[in-house]
Specification:
249 residues, mainly alpha, two-stranded antiparallel sheet, 2 strands, 49% helix, globular, signal
Length: 249
């Protein structure tokens, strides 16, 4: 049997290429079967553990942001810091152009997202972290760009074995997940491993960063997209019963 998500992909393909689209859209039997599959699927938990990134950042602090640090470790560190600070996915990191990369300004060339079916340039401003240079994305950026093993390349993240080639998306994804696994709540969660851009954006929201700024930084089309696919619900920490009933009394 196929998972509901796979069924949805099959339906999308059928709707995109079928010569008689209306016959599928009007098929009550097909729609009922899809509805039955979704209802029979395992329950989706809307509540997630709050991810504590202390262990992940402690590990990153142990990696010196210097041109003499191994290219592998420095790339791993900078990839995680960028993904966390700008809500970037591995595919975004892969598309950062070295030619357009500056201390506080990043340009992601043709990310997966589009606008009106056209490719875009995602421009981001990254702030420094003066109170902790060991975790400052700008410091790590300067060390990576001026790394002793760097050769002439248009890519920000280079393959440490073949320096004239960019790191592939799967390698960048492995970097991010390996560091995220250091966080206890992700390592013990029954859910699939959460992504860095999901964890970071939800942490920013919990800490009071306006949703509009999070949507802009993460390049989400709308609040609805963020709420449906990236926003995590958490267990209520306050005593709502006492607060509400005492107020009504």
């Amino acid at each position: 049997s196929f998972a509901p998500g796979a069924i949805g992909l099959f339906c999308w393909a059928a709707l995109a290429f079928h010569i008689d689209l209306d016959s599928i859209l009007r098929s009550k039997e097909l729609l009922c079967n899809i509805s039955h599959i979704k209802k029979a699927a395992p329950l989706i938990s809307l509540t997630h553990l709050v991810v504590d990134l202390i262990e992940s950042f402690t590990y990153l602090q142990s990696i010196e942001s210097a041109t003499t640090t191994s290219l592998y470790l420095l790339s791993k560190k900078y990839a995680f810091l960028l993904a966390a600070a700008a809500f970037l996915q591995p595919s975004d990191l892969h598309r950062i152009s070295l030619a357009d990369q500056g201390n506080l300004h990043l340009i992601v060339i043709a990310p997966k997202e589009t606008r009106m079916n056209r490719r875009i340039r995602k421009e981001l401003s990254i702030c420094s972290l003066p109170e902790d240079q060991s975790l400052c994305p700008i410091t790590s950026s300067q060390a990576l760009v001026n790394h002793l093993d760097r050769v002439s390349s248009e890519f920000l993240f280079m393959n440490s074995w073949v320096p004239n080639k960019a790191l592939v998306v799967t390698t960048l994804s492995t970097y991010l997940r390996s560091i995220l696994r250091l966080s206890p709540s992700t390592a013990t969660s029954a859910d699939k491993l959460l992504s860095v851009h999901l964890v970071a954006s939800n942490k920013a929201l919990r800490l009071g960063i306006p949703l509009e700024e999070i949507l802009l930084m993460g390049n989400w089309v709308s609040a609805t997209v963020f709420q449906n696919h990236y926003h995590c619900s958490y267990n209520v920490s306050g005593n709502i019963t006492v607060a509400v009933i005492n107020h009504l009394a």
